[in-house]
Amino acid sequence: MPLLEQQAALIVELLSLEHKQDGYQLEVGLTRSGGFTRKVLLIDEFTYLQMNMLASFQGHRVRLSLYPKWDPFRRTYFSSLSKMKSTCSETLYFACSEAYVSQLLQLKELTFPPLEAGAVPAELSSPEPQQMEPLTRSAGTFRLARPIVLRCILFSLLFVLFFLRMDGTVFNSAEAHEDFTERKLSAHSSVPAAYVPVVDQASFQDAEAEAVPVPETGQVQEPEREAGSELDAESELGPEMEAEPGPGPEAESESELQEVQSPLVETLALDGSSYEYNLAKGYVALSFDDGPSKYTQEIVDILLAHGVAANFLFIGQNAQHYPQAVRYADEHGMPVGSHSWDHSDLTKNSSGENHNNLLRSVQVLEQNTGKPVTVFRPPYGAINGSVAAEAGKQKLKVLLWNRDPEDWKADTAEQITQYFYHTDPSGGIYLLHEKAVTVQALPAIIKYLKSKQLKFAIFR
């Protein structure tokens, strides 16, 4: 069994955005492996204005994406930030400059002091949300100089005219998928209108997915099928996975856990020493959040037909509505974990609220599986020392991810598969959701990963 390399994701939280006499700056909080530090970045006017055009951040926690992308149509870079409040999360997009992109790259290269042997991130001094200053903007933020306002209006009109085509169609921002690392950085000489792709519920991607060329053999695609249709008889079928009793009811002995029997699947044990794990090269893992749902059984059937397995992170409230789906996943050898009771931001809760939240979710899942639940993924990937400590008390191992196809906002299966074709899957833990387009894309995804001679990992 390969050892899991510990390389926790870097989380960047926006603390302030200000216009000062000597220029524009933003302050960020950096968290990795439970360690925390602050850093002030000097940014250009272009990026500042773009971020400032977004809705108010007051009362929200805001995370910056570390993965800007190149838009080949607008000839500019764009990035995003995620606003979290209560149970909602929203992604907002903005155009940015070469200088901003360069500073993001520098943030990813920062090193944090290594953890001492045997240390647990939950015990480190990670700041609580209430200890952080609320996100602020300077008093002069909304009193922009007249020339700047006129420039913004002028270029907004120009961009509207440019993207209204002769046939009356409007540019579709979903077409821009080229990674910024594949393009040469270019300077900006003007301030366009704010970048506004489609906004939906957000999930965070806090670890890098390396860009690689599309396979020359062509893009492996499956024809779209209606829910419940039979799998292609000519698809690569692996042996079905069989469940057999494992080692005891305690989290340490785990006697009743099933083991997946397949040459393509290997079960790995999380040691609880990190928020996130990177798989060794040659391995890949699929995980499905936000279930159970009406799609759970179909997802399990597709995995079984291809001789692979995946982790299912279920929401407690959903498990009450689809108890048969929980049992179906468990009975067919798919590890079932907790994704909280109600998919709320647990970092906003008190310790007592989080205790009840995690406990209720675990209880309803264990009632349906008859086995200990030991894997936990916090909603939105939002975690701090208090949440991690509570998870540890309930013998839950935290599992995040390092590959995010953002299937939650995809309109077609092809949009999801394109992400897989453009990233290096080896060592990746993929975050997926129980959606119709994900079900349609799943056979092609599995075929592509199997073509790379990868072994599928599941976590206990």
Automatic annotation (TrEMBL):
Question: Which Pfam families does the UniProt entry name for this protein?
Answer: Polysacc_deac_1
Give the GO cellular component terms, alphabetically. Answer: membrane
Q: Write out the biased-composition intervals (Acidic residues).
A: 229-243
Instruction: Show where the NodB homology domain sits.
Output: 282-457
Picking any one GO biological process from the record gives:
carbohydrate metabolic process
Keywords in alphabetical order, please. Hydrolase, Metal-binding
The protein's GO terms of the molecular function aspect are:
hydrolase activity, acting on carbon-nitrogen (but not peptide) bonds; metal ion binding
* Origin superkingdom: Bacteria
PROSITE patterns tied to this protein: NODB
Disordered, as annotated region: 207-260
PANTHER family, alphabetized: CHITIN DEACETYLASE 1-RELATED, GLYCOSYL TRANSFERASE-RELATED
Q: What is this protein called?
A: NodB homology domain-containing protein
